[in-house]
Amino acid sequence: MKKLVIVESPAKARTLNKYLGKGFQVKASMGHVKDLPKSKLGVDVNDNFKPTYVTIRGKEKVLRELKKAAKEAQEVYLASDPDREGEAIAWHITQSLNKKDQEKVKRILFYEITKEAVKEALKHPGPIDINKVNAQQARRILDRLVGYSLSPLLWRKVERGLSAGRVQSVAVRLICEREEEIERFVPKEYWTLTAHLQRPGAPPPFLAKLFKFQGKKADLPKEEVVKKVLDHLNKASYRVVKVEKKERKDNPKPPFITSTLQQEAARKLGFTAKKTMLLAQQLYEGMDLGEEGPVGLITYMRTDSVRVTPEAQKKARTLIKEMWGKDYLPPRPPQYRIKKSAQDAHEAIRPTEPARNPDSLKSLLPTDHWKLYKLS
User: Fold this and answer.
1) Catalytic residue among 19, 77, 284, 300
2) 234-251: per-residue pLDDT in tens?
3) Domain 3-136 CATH (choose: 3.60.21.10, 3.40.50.140, 3.40.630.10, 2.60.120.330)
4) DSSP annotation string for 118-157
């Protein structure tokens, strides 16, 4: 009898299949298999907000195949993503199995899809984290209560087709408040004066900005004032009264978390947040690298922690020493402060293998995937 591993996506299943071998069967649930019904509220507000779940339309066949595979398996490992949604998927799949098959179920967690990480996770299986499941259910119930209660009100009072939501309605409020601030803003004219100064035969000119004029802070509210000041400055002579030399130390930026990856991808690559997360999900689950097959290229992309595991730090330090020499290797890895509000459940977003140079993947990855991998 084979051991069954259940994941969310076919891409993730292909990558795991490569690492696990013949003793395992890997199947994909294709995302969530259960959800609140679309035709009604699905939440009993009079019974402690008890949810009612139904099989998602189109997932009946998937669920039948998973139940059949679980019945025939020696053990069942649920390897959905290590977050609240992944935990809920694992819980719903377990609840859908026969009682006898539920006893075979074990939960495994890994934050990068590499052979080492997957094998290590299989050595330390555990139970489903019911606290994470409850957190996901609470969020889902809130989404339903807000959306189903307020959206019809918007249709009646404002316009049909509008929707309200737990997150989007708050975001709309913030946008409206900001727009009101912009509308109240009264533009005020002001000027600045700069000059390129150079002594004959001296080094290239340097830029100087007018801060004080005749002993007072330079206030240039109108063009007429600027012209008067310019007349005076054009007749003046200048001298350097003081030169200060300062040493500035630039520390490397912290590793990416979800939000900073989205921000940097938008700034440098022009990607939307949605596109960035889609590409990152695919890089995490595994990309086909030709003869090497599917390979997970980055760690889990939903994280609020800048922490990097000691093993990954060691690999990175070894690579730096080999490629650039020990002079470029700091005495110890940089440490970054983790915010008090951070869950710190997963480490930062990073390449799974520091030695895998982006240039070596340029011909193997689609252009946008390659750009994001290079950025990470």
Assistant:
1) 300
2) 988 888 888 899 998 888
3) 3.40.50.140
4) HHHHHHS-B---HHHHHHHHHHHHHHHHHHHHHHHHHHHH
